[in-house]
Amino acid sequence: MYFFKENLTYSNLSPLSIEEAAEQFCKGVSLFGPFWDHVLGYWKARLEWPERVMFLKYEDLKHGSLFHVKRMGEFLGCPFALEEEKEGVVDEIIELCSFESVSNLKVNKTGVFQAKDFVIEKKSFFPEEARLGTGRII
């Protein structure tokens, strides 16, 4: 999040240090409103309508990709057939959705994204520090 924020061009806001950004995030302040309130709404909806709302954390998907991609297929009513699994369809989906694949798409390397009072270059969506795991990412 910090690397994403660092590449924003604000029309009327001053830049924050990583410490200030982390403090604001922990307090629930983000570009699109209180983060924790946003997540809590989906968490509650998942409990109320488990057949309609699937709550999936990035960490779970990263460390159990095969299990969770199959789980998503079932949730969407499109489970993978045994033949598809044997032919490596699930593995292909995981590869196509990998950080490496998505970050190398031309659409994610050129142009800008603009919303309300900020603009960000799309090349900032996938910073090198995130891929290498060497940066401090919040």
Name the average pLDDT: 77
Q: What percentage of the residues does DSSP assign to strands (E)?
A: 5-15%
Shape: extended
Number of strands: 3
In short:
Strands 1-3-2 form a three-stranded antiparallel sheet.
Helix and strand arrangement:
Elements: H1 2-6, E1 8-10, H2 18-26, H3 35-48, H4 58-63, H5 65-75, H6 82-86, H7 89-96, H8 99-103, E2 112-115, E3 118-121, H9 128-132
Antiparallel strand pairs: 1-3, 2-3
Helix pairs in contact: 5-7
Which keywords apply here?
138 residues, single chain, disordered C terminus, extended, mainly alpha, 8% strand, 9 helices
Architecture overview:
This protein is mostly helical. It is built from nine helices and three strands. The chain has helices spanning 2-6, 18-26, 35-48, 58-63, 65-75, 82-86, 89-96, 99-103, 128-132, and strands at residues 8-10, 112-115, 118-121. A three-stranded antiparallel β-sheet has the order 1-3-2. Helix 5 (65-75) packs across helix 7. The termini are close together.
